[in-house]
UniProtKB/TrEMBL annotation:
Belongs to the binding-protein-dependent transport system permease family. Gene3D superfamilies: MetI-like (1.10.3720.10). This is Peptide ABC transporter permease. It is found in: Cell membrane. GO terms for biological process: transmembrane transport. Keywords: Cell membrane, Membrane, Transmembrane, Transmembrane helix, Transport. The chain crosses the membrane at residues 101-122, 134-161, 201-220, 255-281, 301-327. It comes from Falsiroseomonas bella. PROSITE patterns: ABC_TM1. It comes from the Bacteria. One of its GO terms (cellular component) is plasma membrane. It holds the Pfam family BPD_transp_1. Residues 95-324 form the ABC transmembrane type-1 domain.
Amino acid sequence: MARMIAQRLLAFLPVLLLVLLIVFALSRLIPGDPATTLLGPGATADQIAALRAQLRLDEPPLSQFFSYLWGVLQGDLGRSLKSGAAVTQELLERLPATLELAISATLVALVIGIPIGVLSAIRANTPLDHGVRIVSLAGVSMPAFLLAVLLQLVFGIWLGWLPISGRNSPYFLGDPVTGFAVLDGFLTGDPEAAWDAARHLVLPVMVLAAFLAATLARFVRNAMLEAMAEDYIRTARSKGLPERSVIFIHGLRNALLPALTVLGIKFAELLGGAILTETVFAWPGVGRYMFDAIRNRDYPVVQGATLVFALLFMLVSLGVDLLHAALDPRIRRRVGQ
């Protein structure tokens, strides 16, 4: 097991280097000039040239790449062209907001998606199953920005039940403890602030959880149908086990192993920043940070954020594989061999 972990970690290095090279090249292909964007349309040619020299944008691309790569090897992701702040610090400030959103959406999707998938499988080819499949197909197919706008319109504007943007109300802004707004409200003894943060969390979580729950329900349904057709299910029933035990102990337990892979991949994608959702809801996470950086042609932010996203994705993938090995003795035997 330790050797497998070491091999996977070593494999991260060429992948991260390739990601960095591709993003570096693509970011230079974005139309426009960062210096012109920062100075505005009224800037003179001399001012633009001076700022390009200050930001080292006048150097050859290859020289810029190796200079940036040397900084990355020293743990420096560079400085934002717009704010001048360290990219690492700005990412760390925004990561808790994305983590709170991703974890909340994943928990909601688990609570909704798994029971619906199991129910659809044990009632296969019934009107209930057809209805679940239609709803889950709609959840997978609907664009996130469209669902976000619809929820804002219904629950935020027409009904006025929930806020439609931001992470906190202006009068509840305080010093963060953990970076998780809801948890910080309880830790600081301010339940009203926690409730306000939870209300701001509802709509973006609903958008992300809708897609994830629909994906999970479809996958669990298919995995359950395959599991319930196996010989060990017929053996369990022939032994006189209650149907509930057959479904949840023997069927669901084996069906969840492949579903775990899908869940891990989707969670890693959420950690990478739900760019559209965070932008529509003005959520101050890494997704919106990335969107603003692309719009402003902020090369160091785009490169640093993408590198961190890739690393998080690979770490989550490794964690899922380790969890698989812990839950499935067949995988442990293969790893041991």
